[in-house]
Structure formats: structure tokens, C-alpha cells
Automatic annotation (TrEMBL):
It comes from the Bacteria. The keyword Cell membrane does not apply. Coiled coil: none annotated. This is PBP family phospholipid-binding protein. Residues 1-20 form the signal peptide. The keyword Signal applies. Pfam families: PBP. SUPFAM superfamilies: PEBP-like.
Amino acid sequence: MTTCFPLPLAALLLAAPPLAAEMTLGSPDLTPGEAIGPEFVFDGFGCSGPNLSPALNWSGAPEGTGSFILTVYDPDAPTGSGFWHWSLFNLPADTVALPRGAGKAADLPAGAVQARNDYSQNAYGGPCPPEGDAPHRYVFTIYAMPQDALPIDETASGAVVGFFAHTGALDSASLTATYGR
């Protein structure tokens, strides 16, 4: 059976502007759905890794992006509320990547702020799930924000940064990797 559109509808469909590019988040260090390497594991809580943040890159931010938020969240942590491993905000709008190890304050773009993670550090905190747990999911998400800066500082928790991200983002993209021990 052939479907025919009325001529005015067909003209509208043909004249419609192309769809905007969707945001994407990638990493040369992480493969979606696969295990996170030992170089990114936390050093503490019974784990002994170098605690490097993985390299990340993103594209497709919408027009009007003033800054970015980056979060790393473990929804499988046995806390009742998940676990914030990294919350980075006020990343300048022209930022499209972070190199491996950028989770240390000295390696961040000017103006970027790291909130307090659930290890009580203002830094990247790698995976370290309880021994014997099924592998946990680590959700890396980049959010395009309309403002240049959030009205919070480095004392904010990951949950507060997440509130701003979830209530005000223009768009977002995620990459999920796993880790178990």
C-alpha cells in the first residue's frame, strides 16, 4: 500500500529545516557498557588505583550554551541515593574535551569548578564498589547550560549540581561504563 501525503503537507515536510545535531559524549578511555580500566579506579575505600579521570570529548551543544556541567554518578551504590564521583560545573562554553587526569583542579579550564564528591573531595573520585557486588554502572553525563555560571561554589554537593543540571539543561549526553571487584 502506498501512502500519499496531500501536496501542502508534502511541501511542508520538504521545506522543514534539518534537525539539530544531538549532543554526544565520547571517550578514548571508555567503551560504553564495558569495564572501566584500572587506571581510573579510586585510591582509598579498599581500592588502590591511580584515580585518573578518563579523557572525555563532546559535540553537538545547542545554540545558546553558556557553560557545561559534567557529572559522574553511580546509581548502583548501596547508599539509598547513589554515589556522586565527580561534579564539575562552569566549564566554559568553548570547551569540547577534557584530557585524561583533568580531575585535578590544576588541569581544568579557567573558571571551571569542582563540587564536593561523595568521597568528600573536590576532585574526580574513581570507582570503588564494595567487593563482591555485581559491577556498578558509572554514568558520565555532559549537560549544556544556558548560563555562563551557576550560582553555587565548590562547597556544593553532587546532588545540588545535579539539581541544576536536571532542571535547567538545554541538552545532555551520557556514556555509561561499568566496574566491579
